[in-house]
Structure formats: C-alpha cells, structure tokens
Amino acid sequence: MDAMVESTTHDDTSPAPGDLELLQRFVNLHQHASGNPRSLPPSLKALRNFFVQRGLLDAKERFTPADREKAVALAEALRAEVATSEGEKVSDAVTLIERTAVDAGLRPRFSAEGPPRLEPSAQGLDAILGRLVAIAFLAQLNGSWDHLKRCRDEDCRAVFYDHSKNHSGKWCSMQSCGNRNKVRAWRARQAAE
C-alpha cells in the first residue's frame, strides 16, 4: 500500500471570515496517497490534531475510529451542502447535518455583548460537530454561506471563500488550480488548431 502523506487544509485558499474559516478548514482537511493527486479523507491522527490545535478537543481526550467516521461523514455532508448553494439539488446530507445538530443539543444564546449564537449543550465529539453545524446554520442566515464554493479542478476537493464582487470565482487558488486549468485549456485549444 502507498505511504500516506498528511496534508494541510488547503492553506493557499482564500480564508472565509470569522468562524466560517474553521468550518472551511474542517471540510478541506485531507490526505493524498503517494503519487496520487486525488484527495482522500483525513486520518484519525489528522482529524484529532486538527481539533486539538483549534482548542476544540483536549489533548488528553480519546478520539476513536468511530469518532473519525462520524467527523468525516459530517465533513462530506457539509461539502454537499456547499454544492446546494452552487445550484445543485438538496442532497440527503441535510438529514445527517440535522441529526448532528440534535445530537449536539444546539440551543440559541442571546447576549448584550454580541450577536445571537447557537451553542451545543452536549459534550465531547457531539459538541465539536455541533459547533461546526452551528457555524453553517448562522452562515446560511447571514448570507456568507453563499460565498463558499467547491474548486472546479477535477483533482481538487477544496472549498474556498469567493471574495469576488460578482461571485464568479472558480478555483481555490489561481496559483495552483486556476493556473493548471488555464494551461490545460490552452493546450486543448492548441491541439484543436
């Protein structure tokens, strides 16, 4: 079997504002098999490190293979939900997202110091995943969700935040995916001539 190489969360993509960046980095967490440009789901270690580094999981807490599967399933569901803002039909992923919100016991919280928010009443992984669902929910309400897009490069699975005024961005990064696809299109035109 090919050796696995841990990867980052597409750090060259344009970051989303505020808490939405956490969700963006979560859905972008991936790995590559040696010699294979296609993205693969993150390992247990990669997910655990992601949650620990962001202060969502205590370094002493357990993180099991079942936890990894649950987190990966939510990441894929959120990725599918991004596709609905690009015009694709609503998928079955919404059921998993809603179930995650229920498992987390999301509750509205109001404060004089800031805007209302949703907070999980559960503990552990359910609270972590609930926080991510709360970010998605509030982003859909305030319209920032519509700026999240999937990179159109066939070998890239990155979700990026489209900062363009007319929401016409296609690539997570013009330096990598955008440039690679422009070269492909140019070569195809040259071959056709």
Walk me through what this model shows.
- The structure is a single chain.
- A three-stranded antiparallel beta sheet has the order 1-2-3, with no helix packed on it.
- It has six helices and seven strands; from the N terminus they run E-H-E-E-H-H-H-E-E-H-E-E-H.
- A hairpin with a 5-residue loop joins strand 2 and strand 3.
- The chain is of the alpha+beta class and 193 residues long.
- The protein is globular and about 65 Å long.
- The relative contact order is 0.15.
- Residues 1-10 have low confidence and may be disordered.
> Per DSSP, what share of the residues sits in E-state strands of 2 or more residues?
5-15%
Cross-sheet strand order for the largest sheet: 1-2-3
Low-pLDDT residue intervals, each spanning 5 or more residues:
1-10
Q: Determine the fraction of residues in helical runs and give it as a percent range.
A: 40-55%
Query: In whole angstroms, how far apart are the ends?
Result: 42 Å
* DSSP summary, beta strand count: 7
Q: Given the helix and strand composition, which structural class is it?
A: alpha+beta
**Spatial shape:** globular
The number of helices is 6
Secondary-structure element pattern, one letter each:
EHEEHHHEEHEEH
The largest β sheet comes out as: 3 strands, antiparallel
Integer average pLDDT: 83
Radius of gyration from the CA trace? 18 Å
Short description:
By secondary structure, the protein is α+β, with helices and mostly antiparallel strands. It has helices at residues 20-28, 44-53, 65-85, 93-104, 124-142, 174-192; strands at residues 4-6, 31-33, 39-40, 107-111, 114-119, 148-150, 159-161.
